[in-house]
Amino acid sequence: MSPTLVRDYMTTDVVILRPGDAFKEIVRALADRGVSGAPVVEETGRVMGVVTEADLLHKEAFTPVAEEPRRYFASRSSTRVAQTKAAGDTATDLMSAPAITVDAEAPIARAARLMAVHGFKRLPVVGDDGALVGIISRADVVGVFLAPDDELRRQVVADVVERCLWENPERIRVQVRNGVVTLSGRLASKSLIPLTVALTRSIDGVVDVVDELSYDRDDMTSDRPEAWRCS
């Protein structure tokens, strides 16, 4: 089954910062477009880093009047980085680097994992040559789950039931409601049930799978279980 790719959901109209952009230019660019961060990009298109609102806030946090935030930062190992950014005046000074990027041809699940692991709200998307081609946000990733129920049903029947299992669709009933897929009917062997559920769950946009499947033969106790592969 072909996964949904990052390029299918990324935004190509990206706010781009240049290494020499000044502090106020960065603030104005983010405010004008209503975004909370943007990649810093070289003339070649290579992503150097990312500047976010959090990076900009360091300048306020380390002013003389900001005693409480300053004590907070002083208690952390990242004090020097924060202080350096507070003194910075250009995108190069302020950005977080190196940038964590995701390939345009990567499955959207990889983008979701990177955001979850690093706590990012967005990721720069790069092409084969490493140049910026777009950006993908948490909202874009969540958008995968907006796939219509009838489209999800079509994918389950075509990709799982017919192509992977080689089963007659009349034997397997597929119902989808609000992204939740209910599978019922009879499979030839018991070992096919967890496989069918796993394949269905792997389809982008499926929220959950309800297993109501039965089987004709119990092959789970066999010393040589059947091998199945779906490419």
UniProtKB/TrEMBL annotation:
Keyword Transmembrane assigned: no
Domain BON: 149-217
UniProt keyword annotations, A-Z: CBS domain
Lineage start: Bacteria, Bacillati, Actinomycetota, Actinomycetes, Streptosporangiales
Source organism superkingdom: Bacteria
Annotated ranges, domain CBS: 10-67, 95-151
Protein name: CBS domain-containing protein
InterPro entries xrefs: BON_dom (IPR007055), CBS_dom (IPR000644), CBS_dom_sf (IPR046342), Diverse_CBS-Domain (IPR051257), UCP036990_CBS_BON (IPR017080)
The keyword Acyltransferase is assigned to this record: no
